[in-house]
Design a protein that fits this description.
The complex is a heterodimer of chains A (78) and B (276). Chain A is mainly β and 78 residues long. In chain A, 13% of the residues lie in helices and 47% in strands. In chain A, the strands form 2 sheets. A 4-stranded antiparallel sheet of chain A has the order 1-5-4-6, with helices on one face. A two-stranded antiparallel sheet of chain A has the order 2-3. In chain A, strand 4 and strand 5 form a beta hairpin. Helix content of chain B is 27%, strand content 33%. Strand 6 of chain A pairs antiparallel with strand 3 of chain B.
């Protein structure tokens, strides 16, 4: 499991947020991105939230119950 | 503070968990901002985040509500939804208690005593948002203690005693400040150090000039021979005492050394004060 603050930036890295190239004159980019994911969540020893993607086929039958994580990202001027 | 229950799964007070979670979101925002600095063409900010957790609620004997995440195959878990959204600095300021410098910021533990408020009383007051002595006085001054007794279940005598205790002058510490002429002034910290009129202050039993007086601090000008000893602040017919120590001048230190030998420490080594 990883901490929530590690998970959030990694969510953005999973997708291509811009396609096309400026040379060809056409660029399509994402301006807003919303995730709604099932997740395994635990409260760590220091009170921090630990999260992980569901185990899918690796599930053992003795896995934490799934919660959900919803996050909305908005593009900002660099 | 957390407690361990049910097979080592930690249980946390709700407010501690929410604080930890908001600190994690701050770190996540910082990580996103850092990515933007690496020259990426697109930068994103986290606007909203909602977390749905499967938890069990537990009530501690002192009334604190704790939560722990559901263990595998543990039936009957509650679902808790926590939503976070971006708020502006202005919104934070509008929804935060104004912390006045003049308000008594001592913790409620200062009012404990054989006949004063006990832990259960303090916990009840915390539940209605009273965490400092200043907040306690603000609440009590506009209220009939009997109403507070009915609301909190704390006997009116204990509330009255605590209110009386809260208005007593107290010295909690001191430090030394230097004016432009280099002469040290003693800043005495505490609570209720003035009642509107200028308090009288004695160092080593001698009255000294009070330059400035506020409820939480008094600035006085020590005499040249004052180095350390007892201090007393007199506010009306009440007084508070403590101890003070001033940095010694090099001439002073030389006079105290036999044969005027080398100084073990410079005056500045002593720093600005120190707790009595």
């Amino acid at each position: 499991m990883i901490t929530l603050e590690q998970m959030v930036p990694e969510m953005l890295d999973t997708l291509s947020l811009q396609v096309g190239d400026e040379g060809s004159g056409l660029v399509v980019s994402v301006v807003e991105l919303a995730f709604d994911l099932p997740m395994e969540a635990q409260i760590g020893d220091a009170g921090q939230l630990l999260v992980s993607a569901p185990r899918g086929r690796l599930a053992t039958g003795f896995d934490p119950q799934h919660g959900r994580l919803r996050a909305r990202f908005v593009r900002e001027a660099p | 503070m957390n407690g361990r229950t049910r097979g080592g799964v930690p249980a946390f007070a709700v407010e501690e968990f929410v604080q930890a979670l908001s600190a994690q979101l701050d770190l996540a925002q910082d990580a996103l901002a850092l990515k933007a600095r690496t020259g990426r063409p697109l930068t994103f900010a986290l606007k909203d985040l909602a977390v749905e957790l499967k938890v069990f609620w537990e009530v501690q004997p002192d009334g604190r509500l704790m939560l722990r995440h559901a263990a595998p195959n543990e039936a009957g878990a509650s679902t808790v939804n926590l939503g976070f959204t971006t708020i502006t600095r202005q919104m934070v300021e509008e929804n935060t208690l104004a912390m006045s410098m003049d308000e008594d910021g001592r913790g409620m533990g200062e009012l404990a005593g054989p006949a004063g408020l006990d832990d259960a009383d303090r916990r009840k007051l915390e539940l209605v948002g009273v965490r400092t002595v200043g907040q306690f006085r603000r609440v009590m001054e506009g209220t009939d203690p009997r109403q507070m007794e009915a609301l909190l279940g704390t006997p009116v005598d204990r509330l009255r005693l605590a209110l009386e205790q809260s208005s007593m002058p107290v010295v909690t510490g001191h430090d030394v400040v230097r004016r432009h002429d280099g002469r040290p002034l003693l800043r005495i910290q505490g609570a209720n150090l003035t009642n509107g009129a200028r308090p009288r202050v004695r160092l080593q039993g001698e009255a000294v000039e009070v330059i400035e007086a506020k409820p939480h601090e008094v600035l006085v000008r020590p005499m040249s021979h004052h180095t350390e000893g007892e201090l007393e602040v007199e506010v009306g017919d009440r007084s508070a005492t403590g101890f003070f120590e001033l940095p010694r001048t090099s001439a002073d230190a030389a006079a105290r050394r036999p044969n005027g030998g080398p100084a073990p420490h410079s005056a500045s080594d002593l720093g600005d004060g120190g707790q009595p």
